[in-house]
Structures are given as C-alpha cells and as structure tokens.
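This entry is passed on directly below:
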Amino acid sequence: MSDLQGSLPFDNKLHEECGIFGVFGCDDQETAYNIYSGLFALQHRGQESCGMAVNNNGVVSSHKDMGLVSDVFNKDILEKLPGQMGIGHVRYSTTGCSMRENTQPLVLKYIKGTLSIAHNGNLTNTAELRDELERTGAIFQTTTDSEVMSYLIARERVNCGSVEEAVRRIMPRIQGAYSLLVMSPRKLIAARDPHGFRPLVIGQLENAWVFASETCALDVVGAVYVRDVEPGEIVVADERGLTSIKTETPEKTSLCIFEYIYFARPDSQINGLSVYEARQESGRILARQHPVEADLVIGVPESGIDAAIGYSQASGIPYGKGFVKNNYVGRTFIKPQQKQRENAVRLKLNVLGNTVRGKRVVMLDDSIVRGTTSARLVHMLKNAGATEVHVRISSPPFLWPCYFGTDVPERSQLSAVRNSLDEICRSLGADSLGYLELDSLHEMLCGREIDYCDACFSGNYPVAPPKSEASIDQFVK
C-alpha cells in the first residue's frame, strides 16, 4: 500500500481503495450528472481523486483529477460530457502512487476503439502480470493494477468476438479482488471476481441500467435496486438490455466483512443485509460478550455510533452523543510541527464535556490499527471529566495485513500483534478493553447466510498472498 504513510495522521483508520459507478441508456445530458451524484454518494470510499468517462455514440470524453468530487467537477465541466453511458470512480490509493496519472477511469485507445475501465479492489499477482506484459512490449503510464487489467482485456479483445468474452478470458489469469466496470464503444460491462471480495450492485433508472459499489448510490439517483452482481459474474448492458455470463466460482465466496463493520455507508444494503442493522447487532453482541457497569454509551463517529446504539439497547445503559465531528477537515490540512501533528485528532473530533463529565463511559469504535487515535480519544474523554472509559471494539483484533483492497498495514505496525490485550488497554489509558470475538462475526450478519473474508483477523486468506517481493512491496510501502 504505497500511500500508507500519506494517510491522515489524525485519522488513523483503515481506508477502502475506491468506489465505482456506471450508467447505460441515459439521455445525453443526464449521464454525467447521474455519475456525479453517484460518486458523491460514494465519496466515503475514496477522497484522494475522482473522475468519469462518458461515451457519446462511440466518442469518449473524460475528466479526472486529484481531490473530492465537489472540487473536481462543476456545472461547466459536466455539460461538456454528453453521452448515453459512462463510468465514474472515487479513489483512495492502496496500490499505486498518489498522483494524477493513477486517477480513474482509465481510458485507452486501441485497434478496436476506446476502452474505459474503473476498478475497485487489489490484484495479488500484479507484479507478475506487469512483468509479463512489459517483456512483450507494453508501456505503462500508471502504477496501478487497473492498467494491467486494461492491457489484458485489450489484447484478448483483438483475438475474440466481444469485450465481454475478453473479460471472461482474463478472469482466470487475474488473482485477488476486483469489482470492475468496462466501457466499450457500445456496451457497459460489470464484472466481479469469483470470490466476491468487493460489493457491486445493479439498479434500474427508467430505461437505463445503473451499476454501483453500494445501494446508497442507486438511491441518490432514484434508481431501483435490482440485485447484486454475483461473484464470478459478468453482466453486459447494451441496446438489448442485460445479459449475464457466469464463470467458475469457489464453493465459498469471500465478501470483505469490513464492508459491514466500517467501509460501507449505513444506509446501504449488501447481499440484502442493512449495514446499519449489522453494526447495531455488533454492538449488541459486544454488550453480551463484554458487559460493564457504566452510566453512558457513546460512539466514535461515524461507524462507531451504530454499534454504540446496539450496545445501549442490549445493556440498558443510556446512549448519548460524546463526540462532535468536524466534517470539513480535509486530507490536505497542513500540520507543520510535530506537536500539531500529534494533537490534530482534536481538529476532527471534540468531546461534549457536559455529556461525559462525571460519567463512567463506554466508548464504541470499529477498530484499532496502531492504537494512537484511540489513545488520544480516551485521553480527551478523561480530560473532559469522564471518571472511567471502557473501550469496546466492534471487530476482532487486526493480526494480518490485507491484500485485497484494504490498507491494513504490515504486521509489525499492528498494535494487536505487538501487544497483549492488557498492554493495549494500558497504552490506551482505558479502564477496560473488549473486542468482538472472531467466532461471533457471523452473528453480526443477523442470521443471513453470507460467506465472508476475515483474513485480516484470522490469517485465513481465501486467495494466496503475493508471492514475489515486488508484489508484496505494493501493499506494505
């Protein structure tokens, strides 16, 4: 994850690589506006860069840049992007450097026309594939695995009858996580890796088809949810409607469980399960597994709030608002001195002193990565007058890095690898600490039979980690 050290020093949280959104069959002037709205709804999945490519009768226009959706696009730009279909992307880099060249969608011109691609996830064999392509003459303009897939698709398309067939042919060769949108001159194609690591849904907007990383993006454009793209499925939207192509899948799929814990918006549904309800259930489970005598339950914004509500419901301890979040602190805030850097968490979160003063507080958060942010929050609560702070985490301890599109860092940087539970508790300055137990993750899914990946907690990788040093470097830099 080459940009790990560039993430917010006061937002010591995990980040998901990106979000994708596509439409087929809209009116010329509506396509770009719909993509803009969809990307806005997916902004939480990536705040580093964004872009869109729109196809107007075979002519593709694109615009992309570093920054938030509202910074990169305006009315004048959107009106210069007419077309009947298009794809968009928001990015937080976990592979590839943080630079404009790596923004998506990627738009490539080749012998069959123009190919545009937007990708969510990480491949685990990028280095091997890239080396193979470079040895046969490929010249790369970016450092992303998305460009590797683009070359593979383009090369296969020259030797087969359709873009969807080219996508089908490369799927056995690419390993790891990918939810993918591919736009050809006349078709929009969605594909999901056989393990189904990353979500991808289908919606219908009047006579148009919509694809998105989350259902919240369908809602914002007024599209009706149809279904999820299944693991290993290729879905083609063209003038005939939708066509589904199934490929071989493993017996057990592996949706990233952290989508429910943290990544997805609470108003989204994944595999038919409300993210909000799953987070509340995690809080209820924590209340049973790690009860404590306290006066108040609070949540760390945003995802910790839903779990806190569930903890309160199950424990009977009143829920209250303990933190106020400043939503206008961006990734580029300047912290010129070390002291300011260390205290920058206060710029994003401030304690409601009147709420916590004189109280025994249970603080719910979604995870502990290195532990620095959690320690500062506990310190802030006690400085504001909380007599006790009991930390409850709605996920198990992170023990292993992730190679599938989440920036869980290398093991040496993970607090739970270096320290025992008691040592972590002491380092946080907390009065007690409790994690969600690994064996109870399935309970969070509210009785739904959903297969999931928990490798960052268990070390049980559904796909082999990268073999070469070059491949591993892209994740741990």
Q: What stands out?
A: The longest helix spans residues 275-289. The two ends are 6 Å apart (CA to CA). Residues 1-11, 331-336, 469-477 have pLDDT under 50 and may be disordered.
